[in-house]
């Protein structure tokens, strides 16, 4: 299946964690920049596309064996999945239902969506792998999505 990039947004394959057809998780800062282009902002541990607080994509890095490698992708707007289409146009409950149905053999729901005093969120984990998909709702920004490796 060919993944098309939204204008101003990104396409993710939840099953693999690929963004715009590029493997990003596990790559170094130069590798992520080569794959996705120049970020709009950068810190020592974050590359971001879009503007805070309503960014399109943030890639977060952690040190592994002395090298910073991407371990987390966060989306707040403009993200499509290759199977499910526009992810953040759904409510968090709708997103949970879509991932459960569309990725039944790939992910298991490990934390159903629910609200706690500090935030509303849920989480899927890959069957037999280290990939996780988190989702939730923030009062100011609406639905968000994260993909990370444990």
- Calculate Rg over CA atoms: 15 Å
Low-confidence stretches: 1-7
Q: What order do the helices and strands follow? A: EEHEEEEEEHEEEE
Report the span from N to C terminus.
Answer: 27 Å
Query: Strand content of the residues, in percent?
Result: 35-45%
The strand line-up of the biggest sheet is: 3-4-5-6-12-11-10-9
Provide the structure class. mainly beta
**Tally of domains:** 1
User: What's the pLDDT, averaged over the residues?
Assistant: 91
Level of helix content?
Answer: 10-25%
Number of helical stretches of at least 4 residues = 2
Number of strands: 12
**Largest beta sheet, briefly?**
8 strands, antiparallel
- Any idea what the shape is? globular
């Amino acid at each position: 299946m060919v993944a098309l990039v939204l204008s101003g947004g990104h396409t993710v394959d939840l099953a693999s964690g690929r963004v715009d057809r590029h493997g990003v998780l596990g790559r170094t800062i130069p590798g992520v920049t080569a794959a996705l282009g120049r970020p709009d902002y950068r810190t020592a541990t974050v590359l971001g596309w879009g503007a805070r607080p309503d960014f399109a994509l943030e890639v977060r890095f952690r040190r592994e064996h002395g090298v910073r490698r991407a371990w987390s992708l966060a989306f707040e707007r403009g993200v499509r999945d290759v199977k499910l289409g526009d992810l953040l146009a759904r409510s968090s409950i709708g997103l949970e239902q879509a991932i459960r149905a569309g990725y039944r053999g790939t992910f298991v729901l490990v934390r159903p969506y629910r609200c706690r005093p500090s935030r509303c969120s849920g989480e899927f984990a890959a069957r037999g792998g280290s990939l996780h998909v988190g989702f939730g709702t923030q009062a100011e920004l609406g639905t968000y999505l994260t993909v990370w490796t444990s």
